[in-house]
């Protein structure tokens, strides 16, 4: 059985960069039981279609779990040797946290980063890099960019390997 060289992998890239396909390939290469932890919410019909298409594209060899907020709790519940859990994606999870009243995003982010080293399952986390562009024009967008940047730094520090994907090409940044 093939194994990834580490248990915690962070895959970062822009929208439609190929990061999810790359992460799915890493999961498949392990030979482990595959679990897909989807954080997206279907706010409209287009998103419902997108979620449906992604599920169809993955096929029956994945067990899908949809959890927009309780990421740490779900990872803990799924934790088991011989499993690989793909979390897709952290920026949608962050969006969900920001939409909830009273969430302490810094604490939620720190809790996720602290949990990763304690898990026995292999975990691959995917996220959108949003800090490479211009300064957003409104406060919520700036807050999102700032929260994402801090979250990404914490996850990258906790990960064994970090990849940046652009135009379908992965660049190994750590590990």
Descriptive overview:
There is one protein chain. With 175 residues, the protein is α/β, with parallel strands linked by helices. The protein is 43% helix and 24% strand. It is built from six helices and seven strands; from the N terminus they run βαβαβαβααβαββ. It has helices spanning 19-30, 45-58, 71-78, 90-99, 105-115, 139-158, and strands at residues 8-13, 33-38, 62-66, 83-88, 122-128, 161-166, 169-174. It has a seven-stranded mixed sheet, sandwiched between helices. Strand 2, helix 2 and strand 3 form a beta-alpha-beta unit. Helix 5 (105-115) packs parallel to helix 6. The longest helix has 20 residues, at 139-158. The radius of gyration is 15 Å and the shape is globular. It starts with 7 loop residues before the first strand and ends with a strand. It catalyses: adenosylcob(III)inamide + GTP = adenosylcob(III)inamide phosphate + GDP + H(+); adenosylcob(III)inamide phosphate + GTP + H(+) = adenosylcob(III)inamide-GDP + diphosphate; adenosylcob(III)inamide + ATP = adenosylcob(III)inamide phosphate + ADP + H(+). Pathway: Cofactor biosynthesis; adenosylcobalamin biosynthesis; adenosylcobalamin from cob(II)yrinate a,c-diamide: step 6/7; Cofactor biosynthesis; adenosylcobalamin biosynthesis; adenosylcobalamin from cob(II)yrinate a,c-diamide: step 5/7. Keywords: ATP-binding, Cobalamin biosynthesis, GTP-binding, Kinase, Nucleotide-binding, Nucleotidyltransferase, Transferase. It comes from Rhizobium paknamense. Belongs to the CobU/CobP family.
Please write out the topology.
Layout: E1 8-13, H1 19-30, E2 33-38, H2 45-58, E3 62-66, H3 71-78, E4 83-88, H4 90-99, H5 105-115, E5 122-128, H6 139-158, E6 161-166, E7 169-174
Parallel strand pairs: 1-5, 1-6, 2-3, 2-4, 4-5
Antiparallel strand pairs: 6-7
Helix pairs in contact: 5-6
């Amino acid at each position: 059985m093939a194994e990834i060289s580490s248990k915690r992998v962070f895959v970062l890239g822009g929208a439609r960069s190929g990061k999810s396909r790359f992460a799915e390939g890493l999961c498949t290469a392990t030979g482990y039981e595959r679990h897909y932890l989807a954080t997206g919410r279907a706010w409209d019909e287009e998103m419902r279609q997108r979620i449906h298409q992604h599920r169809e594209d993955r096929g029956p060899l994945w067990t899908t779990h949809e959890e927009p907020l309780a990421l740490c709790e779900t990872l803990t519940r799924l934790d088991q040797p011989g499993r690989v859990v793909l979390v897709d994606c952290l920026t949608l999870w962050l969006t969900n946290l920001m939409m909830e009243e009273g969430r302490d995003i810094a604490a939620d982010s720190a809790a996720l980063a602290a949990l990763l080293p304690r898990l026995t399952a292999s975990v691959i986390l995917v996220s959108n890099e949003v800090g490479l562009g211009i300064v957003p024009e409104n406060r919520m967008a700036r807050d999102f960019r700032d929260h994402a940047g801090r979250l990404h730094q914490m996850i990258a520090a906790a990960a064994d390997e970090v990849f940046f994907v652009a135009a379908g090409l992965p660049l190994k940044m750590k590990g």
